[in-house]
Amino acid sequence: MRAAGRAAAASAAALDTYKHNSARSALSISAARHRGGRTLGVEERRGRLRELGELVRRQRRSAGLTGKELARRAGVGQSTISRIETGDLLPTPETVERVSAALGLGAGERGELDALIARLRDEVSRLRGGLAGRESADAARLRSAVEVICFSSAMIPALLQTAEYARLALTIGRAVDEDDASKAAAIRVQAQAVLFEGGRRFAFVLTEGAVRTWPGSPSLMMAQLDRLVQVSTLDHVRLGVVPWSVEAPAFPLHGFTIFDGAVSVAEAITGDVVVTDQEGTAAHRELFDAFADVAVYGDGLRALLGEIGTDFRQLADQLER
Asked: Which of 158, 262, 167, 173 is nearest to 206 (CA)?
């Protein structure tokens, strides 16, 4: 058992080292490409890594643990804990889970840790560049979340997109590398496996406008509507759509996804906007609840999707004439 524990710790340490070296390379490349003091905030990110380290050290001391004891409880290498605390390592989602459990963090302490790590991971992924890198970061964020709450007013959420819809969502109206976009779409679809994992909870609320906005062709939306119907039958997924016949409780200016109640991510044209302050995430949750209260679910949802499907079939027939 001890040998297995040491092997697991060594494996986790090696994985963290690989992740750290990749992030460090991205920082170095960025600095080389942006001289004259314009290094895309490299020093600021290093400062946040140190802030993360100080936070973990403070939480460890509050728990009355030494670095060696925390490493043993978390099943990671002692060097991993040391490098996190010195601001020399951005931990993987798996390591964060282990350390948080070993520290016995409460909701508030865990929220503070998650918020800082989410911001760092998002910034590092943008340094790596490319759609595929961004999708990989999003997938990591999903894997580390237990509760995901999503509101969308303009498009089908990434977790619910068919492969073809995902490809178009990533490419329409953008000048992107085709190979990068294909890889990104594949990563997005693969990340949807979390929908079928036990121990997670998902809630989606879409406006009817999001369901009716079609990329590519009306025919493509037929498969997309089938996908929504299938997901709506999952026990741990709550999917609702706000019909056009219902008065909107607020102006749906943009969509967002809330992870474990601590971090809210809004997808903008120029990249993700990460909200980590309690006031901001609470405002997003309040807006989500307002739209959720007037959405239709279950049989009512499937009836509405059937009506929309009929409209898409008629539109497809008209365009083919």
From this structure: 158
